Amino acid sequence: MGWRASTHSDKSTTTDLFEGPTPRHSLLSGRYKQSFAYLTLRTRMPGIMQQIIMRLLSDLPDLVNKYGEEVRKDVKQIVDAVERLKMELNRDRQFLLFHGAEPDKVEWNAFITEMPRPKKSFFRACWLHAECYLYRRIFSFFENSRHLQKYDCFDHLKKEDLMLSEMAMSALARATRGLAKSYDAFSKLLRINLWGNHFEMQIGAFRFTEEDSKDDINVLVKVADIDRILLVDDTTLIWNCLVLASKSSGNRIVDFICDNGGFEFFTDMLLLEYMVDNNLATQVRLHVKAIPWYISDVTRADIEWTLDFLTGHRDECLSALGKKWTHMMNTQKIVIAPTSYFWTGPQPYFVMVESDIELYRLLTTSKLAIFKGDLNYRKLLGDFIWDSTEEFITCLRGFRPTNICALRTVKCEVVCGLSEGLADSLLKNDHNWMISGNYGVIQYTDSLKCSCALPGVDSSEKNTRMPGMVVPPSERSTLTPNHP
């Protein structure tokens, strides 16, 4: 199936696993039994692999109709391979090299070979490495089959997520038509985008009053904020970055490093459409996954299906939106960036300049790179438990191809940029705050790290702003009474 065992012994023991949580200033790892990493590797990943097997077997009649009886052999081989991978994970075996048709096998094999042997097994490796390796191995079974090289075992979940979100999509589509170019509108869209994973559930539970309209963006942002807490909000700095860029001539590109498909991608597109329509960007580049990834991550095929689904929708507003977004793609206002396997590799982003210089150079041509979701955040911070008060820019460890924004709901122990004492206060009131998904951050750092967060403006001129810019809360007390 495209891989084979090393000639070295792959046995490992669990004697070096620890009962406690992951200590500060260390990599996330399944070694710590009170960590979310351990829970994921011990319980969640085996469950996901079992669901893949069940999905394949349930699809078997349709696959036989499409490919003929020979596909049964593919399915059996893949099911057996997934079962073996479950066993390897359960026994904390050493990672194996790739030897099949994987386009990125050279990079993966170099990474695995260079890993220290004590950290080359599932529970003792960095969690990021172990998780990425698992998903990469899973898809390698399909890549090396005869008929199912492009089979996405997660596509039904992404499609169902979108189809079950029609009420929320319809409301948001109507509420976002004709929004003015303003910081207020932008900040609302950013909040809705941040909490996109929860929105469909929340709109169903929200108690609308007689005065509330489902077509009102102000009401919908209240829906998005139900029981959600924003721990860091750099929206003003992001807005100012875009406004400053809009005053310059030439192309103003925004790179958007995608996370999930389904309804979340729909909210991504609402935000990106707004940026293009209001001249905050002349083009948006979507960076998607080259292969099915982390269950719900969006691929090129998912985008194409989403646009077709919306275009053919019975709701006139959604259909018009699908046609508009398709036109934006056709006219290259929004484009899918060239495929890069770096996004499905195990490396943190601070090594991009060494491991994929072309991708790094591409990002340097944009005015802003927006990294969406928990996995992108983990890769930005290297899956390392920093002090919660450490500056965002410090945790990027030199990764500064352009101005950077992170939109992330907190789902694991990696976080930075919090105010002093906030993490301790949260822990007292909510023991699971780091994995609940109820807390989020909107973080920003500019590539030049000017103290006023406006590239090219001297710090002595921090009160000199261009029309349309917004004063960050941290600076408002320093302004003169007459300053806007």
Automatic annotation (TrEMBL):
Subfamily III proteins have a conserved RTxK motif about 40-50 residues from the C-terminus; the threonine may be replaced by serine or cysteine. Pfam families: ARMT1-like_dom. It catalyses: beta-D-fructose 6-phosphate = dihydroxyacetone + D-glyceraldehyde 3-phosphate; L-glutamyl-[protein] + S-adenosyl-L-methionine = [protein]-L-glutamate 5-O-methyl ester + S-adenosyl-L-homocysteine; beta-D-fructose 1-phosphate + H2O = D-fructose + phosphate. GO terms for molecular function: metal ion binding; phosphatase activity; protein carboxyl O-methyltransferase activity; pyrophosphatase activity. Its cofactor is Mn(2+); Ni(2+). The lineage of its organism: Eukaryota, Metazoa, Ecdysozoa, Arthropoda, Hexapoda. The keyword Hydrolase applies. PANTHER family: DAMAGE-CONTROL PHOSPHATASE ARMT1. InterPro entries: ARMT-1-like_metal-bd_sf (IPR036075), ARMT1 (IPR039763), ARMT1-like_metal-bd (IPR002791). The keyword Lyase does not apply. This is Sugar phosphate phosphatase. Belongs to the damage-control phosphatase family. Sugar phosphate phosphatase III subfamily. Residues 475-484 have a biased composition (Polar residues). Metal-dependent phosphatase that shows phosphatase activity against several substrates, including fructose-1-phosphate and fructose-6-phosphate. Its preference for fructose-1-phosphate, a strong glycating agent that causes DNA damage rather than a canonical yeast metabolite, suggests a damage-control function in hexose phosphate metabolism. Has also been shown to have O-methyltransferase activity that methylates glutamate residues of target proteins to form gamma-glutamyl methyl ester residues. Possibly methylates PCNA, suggesting it is involved in the DNA damage response.
